[in-house]
Write a structure and sequence with these properties.
There is one protein chain. With 251 residues, this protein is α+β, with helices and mostly antiparallel strands. The protein has one domain: Umud Fragment, subunit A (Ribbon). Helix content is 27%, strand content 22%. The chain is built from 4 helices and 12 strands, in the order αββαβαβββββββββα. Strands 1, 2, 3, 4, 9, 10, 11 and 12 form an 8-stranded antiparallel beta sheet that branches. It is elongated, with a radius of gyration of 29 Å.
Length: 251
């Protein structure tokens, strides 16, 4: 009678080797996931830090700065510049509504997409459109005398007529005024003078001045759309020494 052949037992070393390889692959996958999570957390931390202290993207919702800034432009404001150097004449500045400049704005966003949008905006990966930010040009700082207008139809800053033809849109004499910017204030005007409810239209509030504490940051770049990629330097006219010499505080 034939005796059935016995199956050869598996080599125990092969089993242990296979188990070790499986465990190694599992550990490698977990390490990869952990490294990815760490990288994301670090990246988000850096982005949040940059938004809070260095730079922040903003969305331009209106035409008050045309033709310099267009509706739907995405711009970058430098917070660090304003923190170190303060507010300077000629800068395009993002600032918080001091009260009464903007209508009520409903920025509530519902659902997962709304929560994601708010999160990305908070960390600076989406431009801010909070509804209480404005963007205009700094015409005068504390101690400056700002008036409209001389015989040429120009804004007069500390006795110097400003030739703003390089960047303003339309005439600038919609409102006649003569004010000295109070301490801790900045006099703001849009480049699109015929379509900008700026300091000229809020003269009953602190002579139209916005507190410098409301300044968020100077606009330094237009980053979107790509065909409008550009820097935003201070116009040379604001570097006239006679302007600084005429400031009440010698600034």
């Amino acid at each position: 009678m034939a005796i059935p052949a016995r199956e050869a037992p598996e080599n125990s070393s092969n089993v242990e080797s296979s188990s070790a390889a499986t465990k190694k692959r599992g550990n490698s996958f977990l390490r990869s996931v952990l490294e990815f999570v760490i990288i994301i957390v670090i990246a988000l931390g850096i982005a949040t830090f940059m938004r809070a202290f260095l730079i922040q993207p903003f969305y331009v919702p209106s035409g008050s700065m045309e033709q310099t800034l267009q509706i739907n432009d995405r711009v970058v404001a430098s917070k660090i510049t304003t923190s170190i150097s303060g507010v300077n004449r000629g800068e395009i500045m993002v600032f918080k509504d001091p009260g009464g400049w903007l209508p009520e704005f409903d920025n509530s966003k519902e659902g997962l997409s709304g929560a994601l949008s708010q999160a990305l905006t908070f960390i600076g990966l989406l431009p801010s459109d909070s509804g209480d930010d404005l963007v205009k040009r700094v015409i005068g700082i504390e101690g400056d005398r700002v008036a409209c207008c001389n015989e040429a139809g120009q804004i007069v800053l500390n006795g110097v007529g400003l030739d703003e033809s390089a960047y303003i849109n339309g005439p600038t004499d919609q409102v006649l005024f003569d004010v000295t910017v109070p301490k801790g204030g900045m006099f703001m005007m849009g480049d699109n003078r015929g379509n900008s409810a700026d300091s000229r239209f809020h003269l009953d509030q602190n002579d139209g001045a916005v507190p410098t504490n409301n300044a968020v940051g100077r606009v330094v770049l237009v980053v979107w759309p790509f065909d409008r990629l550009s820097t935003e330097p201070i116009p040379e006219i604001f570097g006239n020494p006679a302007i600084a010499a005429g400031n009440a505080y010698g600034k």
